[in-house]
Amino acid sequence: MRVDHTTASAGLARELAAQCAEAGIGFVDAPVSGGQAGAENGALTVMCGADDPEVFEQAEAAMAAYAKRCRRMGPVGSGQLTKMVNQICIAGLLQGLAEGVSFAQRAGLEVDEVVDVIGQGAAQSWQMDNRAATMAEGEFDFGFAVEWMLKDLSICLDEASRNGARLPVASLVEQFYRQVDQRGGSRWDTSSLIDLLQRP
Questions:
Q1: Which of 88, 125, 152, 174 has its CA 20 to 30 A from that of 158?
Q2: Are residues 70 and 104 in the same domain?
Q3: What mean pLDDT do residues 81-87 have?
Q4: DSSP secondary structure, the chain, as one string
Q5: Known catalytic residues?
Q6: Looking at residue 138, which CATH number applies to its domain?
Q7: pLDDT digits (tens, 9 = 90+) for 28-52
Q8: CATH code at 58?
């Protein structure tokens, strides 16, 4: 059995599965979410695609060592498609958070106090809890890198062109990440979108 934790296209996952099938090997596409901290703490979320549920069950038993959640989303390719949904949602969320933090700063508010209040309501998110303070300080030297998000969003936009999904916000945020990359931020954390607002 082969388990592929890379983030790639659903088409590539299907190609790999076909090659494995020719050799009599089961295949699971299993991209992850949770970053370095999730991996170190055994708390990754794993989104899986597998044609054979029994192959998935065997892989799931092994992945339990480092995953807090592991789910088969459908046949091969479904794991990659689910990861695309994850990245689309994160991109939009980070842009909204960047704008909110920047607005708070320009309005003369204390970002920590604002986040403490609104973080108890509908605006709360993992990104707010873990990145709002560092965004306000202009600290971007940790977490998931801009160049990786650019790669992932490119995969999302390519898939959307095939399946007809409209991604206006993801397309816009992808352009913003390109601007961050062009100003030398390819290895900055994805929360660095705020840099475009702090230093237009």
A1: 125
A2: no
A3: 98
A4: -EEE-S---HHHHHHHHHHHHHTT--EEE--EESHHHHHHTT-EEEEEB-SSHHHHHHHHHHHTTTEEEEEE-SSTTHHHHHHHHHHHHHHHHHHHHHHHHHHHHHTT--HHHHHHHHTTTTT--HHHHHHHHHHHHT---SSSBHHHHHHHHHHHHHHHHHHT---HHHHHHHHHHHHHHHTT-TTSBGGGGGHHHH--
A5: 83
A6: 1.10.1040.10
A7: 999 999 887 888 889 999 999 999 9
A8: 3.40.50.720
Compute the radius of gyration of the chain from its Cα atoms: 19
End position of a domain, from candidates 76, 103, 135: 76
pLDDT recorded at residue 15: 98
131 and 101 together in one domain: yes
- Do residues 56 and 13 both lie within one domain? yes
